[in-house]
Automatic annotation (TrEMBL):
Domain of life per record: Bacteria
Protein name: Putative membrane protein
InterPro entries: DUF1269_membrane
Pfam families, sorted: DUF1269 (PF06897)
UniProt KW keywords: Membrane, Transmembrane, Transmembrane helix
Organism of derivation: Microbacterium immunditiarum
Length: 175
């Protein structure tokens, strides 16, 4: 699959059950051949502001290198500070700093407090830009949705940095 033109698709939810249902529908749509998703997660933000990854493509949520390489990239593109809070290693820090700077300069990405306010959930997906509208439409239960282009170079560099540091990232996430 080409990663030349990517989109970050986000749906915001008042409750986690609706987010999980849309996540499963999103995965079913991909399985049925309607579109392709590069990565997707369900994020839950507690009233205390703490964010957890509830669901992603790997069955062992929060365990193993697959989490670091898959969900970590999606979380990092959605909100670099969320990944930076748990990630270790200079490579990841440098890439996250560049992504944050790009978000500010290019006005891409979304406002975390708007789409993942305390006490809410979000489905965050990365897809080829040609599928963005279909992916966004699959988030039927969301209170609001948005699709924004993302820099494929940022995606590739962040994925590589996380893959190289996956064990450290997973160790920190599971601490």
């Amino acid at each position: 699959m080409s990663t030349h033109n990517l989109a970050l698709v986000v749906g915001s939810y008042a409750d986690t059950d609706s987010a999980s249902e849309d996540y499963r529908s999103l995965r079913s749509g991909q399985d049925a051949g309607g579109y392709e998703i590069i990565g997707a997660v369900v994020l839950v933000r507690g009233r205390d502001g703490k964010v957890q990854v509830k669901e992603h493509g790997d069955k062992s949520v929060g365990h193993g290198a697959a989490w670091g390489a898959g969900a970590g990239v999606v979380v990092g593109l959605f909100a670099p500070p969320l990944l930076a809070a748990t990630a270790v290693g200079a490579g990841i820090g440098a890439i996250l700093g560049k992504i944050k700077k790009n978000k500010e300069e290019k006005q891409f990405g979304v406002d975390v407090d708007e789409y993942l306010a305390p006490g809410t959930s979000a489905v965050v997906a990365v897809a080829d830009e040609r599928w963005a509208a279909r992916v966004e439409e699959a988030l039927l239960r969301s209170d609001k949705r948005v699709s924004k282009p993302i820099d494929s170079d940022d995606f590739t560099r962040l994925r590589k940095a996380i893959e190289e540091s996956a064990d450290d990232v997973v160790e920190q996430l599971n601490a």
